[in-house]
Amino acid sequence: MSMAIPPPPLLPLLHLVALAAMLSFSLPAAIAIDLRILHAFNPFSSLHHPDPFSPSSFEATLLSLTSHDESRLLALAATTTSHARRKKAAPGAPIASGRLLLQTPTYVVRAGVGTPPQPLLLTVDTSNDAAWIPCTACAGCPSSSPSFSPANSSTFQPLPCGTPLCSQVPNPSCPSATDGAAACSFSLTYGSSSLQASLVQDSLSLAADVISGYNFGCLQTVTGASLPPQGLLGLGRGPASLPSQTRPRYAATFSYCLPNFRSLNFSGSLRLGPAAKPRRIHSTPLLANPRRPSLYYVNMTRIRVGGRPVRIPPEAFAFDPSTGGGTIIDSGTMFTRLVAPAYEAVRDEFRRRIKGGGAVTFLGGFDTCYSGAAVKVPAVELEFEGMRVRLPEENVVIRSSSGSTLCLAMAASPGNVNSVLNVVASMAQQNHRVVFDGAGGRLGIARERCT
Ligand SMILES: *[C@@H]1O[C@H](CO)[C@@H](O)[C@H](O)[C@H]1NC(C)=O
Ligand SMILES: *[C@@H]1O[C@H](CO)[C@@H](O)[C@H](O)[C@H]1NC(C)=O
Ligand SMILES: *[C@@H]1O[C@H](CO)[C@@H](O)[C@H](O)[C@H]1NC(C)=O
């Protein structure tokens, strides 16, 4: 798996900022001030520029953000068959964009691992099942980043090979087939990195929810630098995921609201269980693909631009378990990807409907950019079976900070194995409550401002 521009190594300074982020729960302003000095970590440097969206760094910023997605999309294609074998809503756990906190264009949730809870910012990933967390003895984990100390948790337990979950994690390995008491470990690749983790159990705290006996990977060996530095929370649909492990308690249901990716605040939230569901919400059936059991497939049927349905060949959206084709909702990809014929049709209609902005330009991997302050962006609406989602402008275009340049924040799926997959990505989900109802087999989306 290749990644054109890998995420940067974490520097000690960043560690301080991440720590400050965790400790100063009520002081987001302090983070903003500290981040002013986080610049020039090549090659992702534009993300750390004092203003990555200023006209001078806008293009480089777009390039680094899209390159993260490219490797993500390859990873999504790779997560196939191997493990196929086998009330009043609580406020929820705080979510923030990891863009500045952890130099990763994904979202992180504030979590605690162990007893007493050790704070970590876990990347929210709806397309992976197993969670993994850097543990103290990890070789290759960034030393500048906090890690979990099993020795300091009174509830920590390694899991033996005989445990049922050991056959459901990716590439499980045990010293011998007969030694059920030996420690279970697993390995996988993620982006351009690979990891090996031992399967362990401990308590996971998410806001007021304490999940005891949660099974996850304690990182032992990591190569490459593209892992979420403080660990990943797997919210996929497979047996090793958090929703599956806690099914009796939360009915495989969770929801989140992702704040605008530019926000520095932990103003988003992750809620567990059906109580999290807003009363008024439209939903669409989830489709199960046995070849990609982790992914949340939905039936996208149409896209409207400026109120008019775009003419898209029906096969562009067709759900096909044998090729992996169809549409997924994903929290870990930033920009929505459509298979080429669908993207081109949407883009062409968008170009016809936009008002002002002069000639179309290419910028940082996007092919539909305009300049000028008075550009009027047409409405974009995604239609799913039984649900229509009208996207506000912040979900459709990405703007430079002066507002003078904007780009349609979508692209064609990369022309490779993944060219059959449409991905409704995080930017299209910002400031919406997205409800994943695994037990009811539905996905709901409602506008919610978590800024
Ligand atoms: C465990 O906690 C103690 C006291 O808080 C701390 O000094 C020590 O470094 C921790 N151990 C590890 C391995 O992190
Ligand atoms: C963060 O929250 C504060 C108040 O809680 C608000 O004033 C500020 O605008 C927010 N910042 C961002 C970037 O959303
Ligand atoms: C998707 O929705 C369309 C329109 O309702 C329907 O004809 C089609 O059978 C659905 N596809 C799947 C895989 O459910």
Automatic annotation (TrEMBL):
Indicate yes or no for the key word Chloroplast: no
Tell me which InterPro entries the record gives: Aspartic_peptidase_A1 (IPR001461), PEPTIDASE_A1 (IPR033121), Peptidase_aspartic_dom_sf (IPR021109), TAXi_C (IPR032799), TAXi_N (IPR032861)
Q: Which Gene3D superfamilies match?
A: Acid Proteases (2.40.70.10)
GO terms of molecular function: aspartic-type endopeptidase activity
Instruction: Give the protein family.
Output: Belongs to the peptidase A1 family.
Instruction: Report the PANTHER family cross-referenced here.
Output: ASPARTYL PROTEASE AED3-LIKE, ASPARTYL PROTEASES
Query: What is the protein name given in its UniProt record?
Result: Aspartyl protease AED3-like
Organism name: Phoenix dactylifera
